[in-house]
Amino acid sequence: MKTYNDTRLLHGGDYNPEQWLAHPEILKKDFELMDKAHVNTVTVGIFSWSTLEPEEGVYHFEWLDKVFEAMHKRNGRVILATPSGGRPQWLSEKYPEVNRTNILGQKHHHGFRHNHCYTSPIYRKKVQQINRQLAERYGNHPALLMWHISNEYSGECYCDFCAEKWRDWVKDKYQTLDAVNDAWWMTFWSNSYSSWSQVVPPSPLGEHKVHGMDLDWKRFVTDQTIDFFLNEIEPIREITPNLPVTTNFMAEGHDQQDFIPLEGLDYSRFAEVIDIVSWDSYPDWHNPYEPLHLTAMKSAYIHDQYRSLKKQPFLVMESTPSYVNWHAYNKAKKPGMHILSGMQQLAHGSDSTLYFQWRQSLGNSEKFHGAVVGHDNSEKNRVFQEVATYGKRLDTLAAIKGTPKEAKVAILFDWESNWALKRGGGFGRPTRRYIQTLQENYRFFWERDIAVDILTPNQDFSDYALVIAPMLYLMQEDTMKELSEYVKKGGILIGSYFTGMVNENDQLHLGEWPQTLQTIFGLLPQELETLYPGEHNQILYQGKSYQTKDYCGIVQETTGKVIATYSQDFYVNTPALVENRLGQGTAYYLAARTDLDFLEVFYQPMIEKLALQQEIVKDTQPKVSIQSRTDGQHNYYFLMNFSEERQQLELLQPLLDLETNQTLTGLLTFAPYEVKILKKEN
Amino acid sequence: MKTYNDTRLLHGGDYNPEQWLAHPEILKKDFELMDKAHVNTVTVGIFSWSTLEPEEGVYHFEWLDKVFEAMHKRNGRVILATPSGGRPQWLSEKYPEVNRTNILGQKHHHGFRHNHCYTSPIYRKKVQQINRQLAERYGNHPALLMWHISNEYSGECYCDFCAEKWRDWVKDKYQTLDAVNDAWWMTFWSNSYSSWSQVVPPSPLGEHKVHGMDLDWKRFVTDQTIDFFLNEIEPIREITPNLPVTTNFMAEGHDQQDFIPLEGLDYSRFAEVIDIVSWDSYPDWHNPYEPLHLTAMKSAYIHDQYRSLKKQPFLVMESTPSYVNWHAYNKAKKPGMHILSGMQQLAHGSDSTLYFQWRQSLGNSEKFHGAVVGHDNSEKNRVFQEVATYGKRLDTLAAIKGTPKEAKVAILFDWESNWALKRGGGFGRPTRRYIQTLQENYRFFWERDIAVDILTPNQDFSDYALVIAPMLYLMQEDTMKELSEYVKKGGILIGSYFTGMVNENDQLHLGEWPQTLQTIFGLLPQELETLYPGEHNQILYQGKSYQTKDYCGIVQETTGKVIATYSQDFYVNTPALVENRLGQGTAYYLAARTDLDFLEVFYQPMIEKLALQQEIVKDTQPKVSIQSRTDGQHNYYFLMNFSEERQQLELLQPLLDLETNQTLTGLLTFAPYEVKILKKEN
Amino acid sequence: MKTYNDTRLLHGGDYNPEQWLAHPEILKKDFELMDKAHVNTVTVGIFSWSTLEPEEGVYHFEWLDKVFEAMHKRNGRVILATPSGGRPQWLSEKYPEVNRTNILGQKHHHGFRHNHCYTSPIYRKKVQQINRQLAERYGNHPALLMWHISNEYSGECYCDFCAEKWRDWVKDKYQTLDAVNDAWWMTFWSNSYSSWSQVVPPSPLGEHKVHGMDLDWKRFVTDQTIDFFLNEIEPIREITPNLPVTTNFMAEGHDQQDFIPLEGLDYSRFAEVIDIVSWDSYPDWHNPYEPLHLTAMKSAYIHDQYRSLKKQPFLVMESTPSYVNWHAYNKAKKPGMHILSGMQQLAHGSDSTLYFQWRQSLGNSEKFHGAVVGHDNSEKNRVFQEVATYGKRLDTLAAIKGTPKEAKVAILFDWESNWALKRGGGFGRPTRRYIQTLQENYRFFWERDIAVDILTPNQDFSDYALVIAPMLYLMQEDTMKELSEYVKKGGILIGSYFTGMVNENDQLHLGEWPQTLQTIFGLLPQELETLYPGEHNQILYQGKSYQTKDYCGIVQETTGKVIATYSQDFYVNTPALVENRLGQGTAYYLAARTDLDFLEVFYQPMIEKLALQQEIVKDTQPKVSIQSRTDGQHNYYFLMNFSEERQQLELLQPLLDLETNQTLTGLLTFAPYEVKILKKEN
Questions:
Q1: Which among A348, A601, A303, A607 has a CA at the least distance from the CA of A466?
Q2: Fewest CB atoms within 10 Å of the CB: B108, B627, B646, C385?
Q3: What local confidence, expressed as pLDDT, does residue B439 receive?
Q4: How confident is the model at residue B593 (pLDDT cuts 50, 70, 90)?
Q5: Where is the Glycoside hydrolase family 42 N-terminal domain (chains A, B, C) (predicted)?
Q6: Active site (catalytic) residues of B
Q7: Nearest Cα to C345, choosing from C640, C34, C670?
Q8: Inter-chain contact B530–C369, Cβ cutoff 8 Å?
Q9: Which residues partner with C146 through β-bridges?
Q10: For residues A451 and A627, is the Cβ–Cβ distance under 8 A?
């Protein structure tokens, strides 16, 4: 693992001096303001290609040299981006193949961003050329901290290059057409391939509902994106073998009231080829559809998932000091929210708070996206002042830099299961909601300040006290075996409706549910009843009744013990929750989807038995989140009030306030949005 | 009329052994399970082309031979499908012209199904070749019951072949450009044709709002679809002149809370060229937007419409034993619902219950569509058990096979009026709802167990006691005359707002409403007031007030007698319902759309006067449907409880339970979903 | 200024005899019915090209000669349209370049209307040829009143001709690529142009979110549309230099509950090249989403805006005597509504009530659009009778023809600000609602019968007592100076959130808000808080609380006096309304959007102080609108009851009823929809 050489928490962000080259007074003022804002790091070059190489082969680096020098002079650092996210007009014009072709076969021309063909040989060559130039010029510069490769990789291309690559990918995976036809079940509707030339990308104008093909296409998109990335870093690895590389991951879904990891790319695969995970974090604070602490919970979930990708500290590469411009309604963070949301990043394992963006542009499509320096070009406004205050507080928290987070609870998430669940027919199309269901489980732990890792089934989960794996729809044989081993050795496992329903080709198992799963859970699934919105059944559990929604699995227990049953409909009195002892451990199969009230009574005894509760305050408060990082010798606790009200917590032991160096005891009071960072010696 | 040679009610359905050729144990098990399920018929070949002819001109029939032999051995029958609904990849690849071109001129490539060009000479030739092969090989096989031509014909193509055919069709119909320009009123917006080459299909990129053209285009689509069908059956008629042919019709509209006959093709025209009507019946049972008996009513409506197409027993070619996969929410039938819904098919004149599908596929887009044999490959589950129980009950009901249904009430429905009403502007676009309005009228009779035929105006309605023809917007001269004759000879006719508004070119009548209609209804329409949703007027009728909705026609009576008037707005006290005596009969013009409460007081005296009431129970129950079939000597009554509650009916006379052979008298009790089939000697 | 030579109010409208050439009895009847309807003017030729020139270069004018003669004979007048809105099929077929290309690059073929390329050299030539023919033949005809150029210009074309013209336009405006890159802020996302060939129209397949480009594209569309218009009128100006030309403007937005001026074209620019403003007025009377008087208010707003374009009487070129056909629900005007709505046109400065259309077509897409003569071809129906009554009343009102309207209040509206506000991100996308906010301000004055002019910032507003300019987002330096001068000389000016936020390139000002604006308003804007729907703050003003919505600007006063403050959230107690004295005048900055209740208490003292109240009745009624026109010697008052209820008003002085010639005094009673026109000697 490569890491970077700086002991500070990084504070700063995307800096676009190329927009201001005609305004030297602005460039000068930038650095004065950076000092005032306690900024130590800038990310440059993300959309600078047309400035770096205004004509093919003609390079202009002077302006960038100055940034490196200026940052170096003030002991600051530079994260240098490769510019492939936004290519110059001349490149699109001279080599039209570099532009993306959409799913309808329409060739795009130049415009917008992030829309190159990731297969085009010319684009790959041109990207290597500019990247090599950058590496040669800045690779040894002492201010250079790491590489930021491209920007927010995403999307798909359907050009002939990509179609050919897709064909090769399929050929390479399956070797024979018979194998393809089998895997994708192509005799259905008489669509069996009889020639490799018939294998083309999915399209609404051709094949577009073949589940196995769609799943493989998503895998191919991830593979080809990574392949493009690997091409990008070739000259960089050659010239700067010791510098870490990252690329900024994304989340999605704000205006739909969701806030979830990006679904289009399997980041668990991508994480394997980068040195440091980083992401662009834009929670929808102060939204009208949920209380603030639920926004914080979703934000925490994504932090934990991205931290878990490598189980290392990560970076927040982008965030806004105020508002974004791409929501339907773009609300600024209220006073205090910026510091609270920044501290949450650190609390979950980030070693940075970086912004998009340092300075607002005066024109073009993101001119109303927030920045540290606004259009008023002044340090007097509220946003700049809060950023500066935050930067100053970061200086006192450097000790936490690089410290990991420890968790005994794992939630399993699988990009491939998610892809498969989102495609095709059956059950309730609008109610699959795999990630959102994981977040509902996560919420239980987050509200009780219990740390959670979010792993893929390919990661090692054998040492966790509790593994929560509902809706793991697509399951490899290996995963089944590892889950079985995990339980046998004493683990506690949670499965559910949809668990293990299909194999890696999104095909059903012929005959019974796989024997390994039967043994783990002690039951046989019979039917999966789909409920309409507003339709419910009830679960009777320990004498109380809990409402179900969306799905009620009907199962028959074998070795398992029925510990909850349905209260109505034709499957009344059949099992809703089955507990199965296996070896030293226990597996639970929760057949129905429930609300949080049921999850609370279900999980509460487990966390007590496993002694998972946090140990520094007397009673936890759902709206005050406590997260900790540790360097082994010390634990660092972040206590964060995600509410508009004053809150109180009672410390169980004296703890040191890391910022004031005072020892705190007894009842702590938190103003709205207030954060305290406490330190404990181990 | 050709019919098939089997005395049983058909039970079975779509069978796709080609998906399982690599699994001989599955193929073996299929036939064992068919015996257990009391299956006597399989439909094969629907999507088998790529298996039958994996390379051009290379045929593989062995697998199909085995199906024929296996079915024959167990006294079962085969419905053999022509495979044109899903062509092989090689055909699309070698002859791209066979792929459809959409309305934007985008050429599709291979994929999905049901998307060939119906004009392509090569496709027509290739279809004939494979059909000839099938007819030659299986035409004399004793297990062959009938031909199932293609699958669910639908859709449109806009390729150059189709454009040329469209031009020919227009030329053939109108002979001169002047006639086209007149019929389509093309001087409007200066769009008069000056050359035949200007006549091209409607398109959003060209002409797309010319009412007359749109109407003719829909006619052309039906004609060209039938023409394709006639091409398909040429070798079949030649080789197997005595075997009946059918093709499976469709319904549409589930997720929109509608369940109505397919609107895109004029099935009354299609019915003329097939021997037996069959359709694919997928009511949305247990939906959240209506009580169960209303779903049953809509389902009954479509059964009656398709039965009335030839006024003969029909076949249910597809239905699901459990759930479908293409709704937003796909709910399984609850226990008992399968038998109830199957019996309803028979009650309305079906001689079969056939399923899509025998066995669920493991992969691809319909893998979650229900089947007799599920992924568990077992007879133990609920669905298989219910199918088997149903199959066993069918064995005792063979006597009803082939018996017709008798009705004294006719509802008129016209595909062309529906097309014309759905196009273009004016009035309330979302509230035209022609078919749904017919269903509201139908509901009155269905809830009282009075049989109804649903005819087109081209069918003979002269012998019915009551003809209900609201919203017959487009009316030919002939229809007016026949309606007039019908009333004069003693019939009772119901017309309404929209009745007879346009001629066959969707053109208004210049001057007064046609004299024939004036004479029939005794009035002159003045205006048609459109109401917004939530806006209402009231009708005062026999001292009580009834709410109107959507439309209030303003009329002036001539010879008619005003028997209801409006209660408010500027047309207060003007006629809402006019009764007109003509010869021996009476015509009613209901000027406004009302709720069911008004239809009840309007129709109730008529059914009493005409003695249309059912005669076997004392009081009918809306939720218990009674439908009968008769062979002249015996009447067979289906009493079906479409509710989740216990229901009671009191028999007016002793009747024989056809399944138990016991005579029932007095009070009958029906469990939820229960069906009894009773027999009466005439 | 050219004007037309007729002393009457024009009554009549679009007449399409070319649809009826095969029906001479209809053509004959038309003129008989026109006499009965008191019609004095017909507009012909709008969609007659295929009749005028059925083959290229072959002209048929006889039918049109007859119209001219018939109108002349009865002392009627003809408005002659050029036919470019609907070209003949042969033209589209022979010269495909004349057809429009859409934003996706799809070439349209012939069909529909209003979809020619406005750049095509051939189309421009062909349009000149036919226009020249018309001018030569009818230019000296005594019945010819004026020219109606094309029809409802709108839309955009993206063909190669237009792309080339766009490039020239950009080159002409900016001269250098550096200037383009600066103006559009193209270094952002690395999109700087390095060659003129890269400058192409915006497209979803290329550049489509560059604010400056989008704004310039809208300007180009207006310019190119006007350029097409100027090409059209070349032969007309040459041959008939003394005849006025007009083209019919549009409004938009009915089914979205909006009724606003067309947004796509800058009519203030277009108005400069026409002699008379005319527009097509289709308010959504009797809709379910607002009381009638609010529909009237929106209708009045557009009348006033189009009248203000030239500050002269205008024409209503189209309106419907009954219903339209293109709403979701097409409701006919109730009895009395036609006369009321027609009189409203006159009240706001129209010298005509013209209809689309004289006679309903029997077929094609607008066959259900209302007309004076319906399908019944009769004068007996309600619509014809009301039109005739209205025509007769117009005869008594000729004195008002040509009289202007006087207003002391101006609302500023700017098409460019509207375009810029509607594009791109930031703030609340669904809540910008610039025009709707102007209408909310207008409503205050309309309900109190105070006349308002609606001007662009380029018009002279120096003489108004009150200038209301909220949300004037894009502001030129000149405008700032003129506003400053206006206030200094004693004017009262209203600004708001969004005011003066960007320059003419939709770029933010770097640094503080422009000094001129600071001086005018006496404050510095700090932040613009966006509220979600349902989210509110309160304004405390003169001891009472008023709700805000959508936007709350946060400002810091300098020279201004805070006269209202916010009641909650982090900006509690900061200024919500600032009053600033400057020279002899006062400027108000209303930082937040409010409901009408606040506008009432805000504006009421102003109108009292400025003595703006109407002076003929004692208490105004919001639902009875009073509007006046004046010839200096006389004032003509229209008193219009826009409600379904009887209303009363008390006259402050005796006034003459212009229609009855009786003097009215004291309490006047208005039946629902009733209109009285009163005359006062000055």
A1: A607
A2: B646
A3: 98
A4: very high
A5: 14-396
A6: 152, 318
A7: C640
A8: no
A9: C79
A10: yes
DSSP label at B518? Answer: H
> What CA dihedral angle connects A547, A553, A558 and A559, to 10 degrees?
-50
pLDDT digits (tens, 9 = 90+) for C519-534: 999 999 999 999 999 9
Residues forming a β-bridge with B554: B527
Identify the residue among C170, C182, C189 best suited for mutation to test binding to A, counting A beta carbons within 10 A and taking the highest: C189
Cβ(A231)–Cβ(A165) below 8 Å: no
**CA angle at A324 for the pair A321 and A330, rounded to the nearest 5°:** 115
* Count of beta carbons in the 10 Å neighbourhood of residue A137: 17
Token pair, residue C175, equals 């001269």
Nearest CA in chain A to B375: A510
Q: Yes or no: say if C649 and C615 are a contact pair by the CB < 8 Å rule.
A: no
pLDDT at C87 over 70: yes
Query: What is the rounded distance in angstroms from the CA atom of residue A74 to the CA atom of residue A69?
Result: 9
Q: Which of A364, A239, A249 is nearest to A302 (CA)?
A: A249
Average pLDDT over residues C591-615: 97
Q: In this complex, do A50 and C191 lie within 8 Å of one another by their Cβ atoms?
A: yes
CA distance A83 to A131: 8
Q: Which of A18, A106, A382 sits opposite C187 (nearest CB)?
A: A18
At A297-326, the pLDDT tens digits run 999 999 999 999 999 999 999 999 999 999
The region, left, alpha or beta by phi > 0 then psi within -120 to 50, assigned to residue B156 is beta
Ranges of beta strands (E only) in C82-176 are 144-148
Q: List CB contacts (< 8 A) between C200 and chain A.
A: 109
pLDDT digits (tens, 9 = 90+) for A396-431: 999 999 999 999 999 999 999 999 999 878 999 999
Residue entry with tokens 């959130």: C497
Residue of chain B whose alpha carbon sits nearest to that of C289: B532
Q: How many C-beta atoms surround the C-beta of residue B273 within 10 A? A: 14
B19: enclosing H helix or E strand: none
Task: Provide, as residue numbers in chain A, all residues whose Cβ is less than 8 Å from the Cβ of B108.
Answer: 205-206
What chains are in contact with B, requiring at least 3 Cβ pairs below 8 Å?
A, C
Cα A316 from Cα A348, distance rounded (Å): 11
**Per-residue pLDDT at B1:** 65
- Residue B423 pLDDT level (bands cut at 50, 70, 90): confident
8 Å CB contact between A532 and A430 = no
Instruction: Read off the pLDDT of residues A336-351 as tens digits, 9 standing for 90 and up.
Output: 999 999 999 999 999 9
- Which of C194, C429, C532 shows the shortest C-beta gap to A55? C194
* Alpha-carbon gap, residue C430 to A605, rounded angstroms: 48
The answer on pLDDT for B2 being more than 90 is no
* pLDDT band, very low/low/confident/very high, at C408 (cuts 50, 70, 90): very high
* A&B contacts, CB < 8 Å: 172
The per-residue pLDDT for A1 is: 65
Phi, psi of B680 (to 5 degrees): -130, 135
Interface probe, candidates C190, C432, C509, C566, chain A, greatest A C-beta count within 10 A:
C190
Question: B515: buried, middle or exposed (CB in 10 Å: 19+, 13-18, 0-12)?
Answer: exposed
CB atoms within 10 A of CB C514: 15
Per-residue pLDDT at B682 exceeds 90: no
φ, ψ at A176 (rounded to 5°): -120, 155
Residue B458: band (very low, low, confident or very high) from pLDDT cuts 50, 70, 90 = very high
Which of B363, B368, B376 has the CB atom closest to A184's CB atom?
B363
Q: What is the ipTM of this complex?
A: 0.96
Find out whether B588 and B495 touch, Cβ atoms under 8 Å: yes
CA–CA separation, C493 and C587 (whole Å)? 5
Least Cα distance to C300 among C398, C401, C388, C405 occurs for C405
In this complex, do C205 and A107 lie within 8 Å of one another by their Cβ atoms?
A: yes
Query: C touches which chains (3+ CB pairs under 8 A)?
Result: A, B
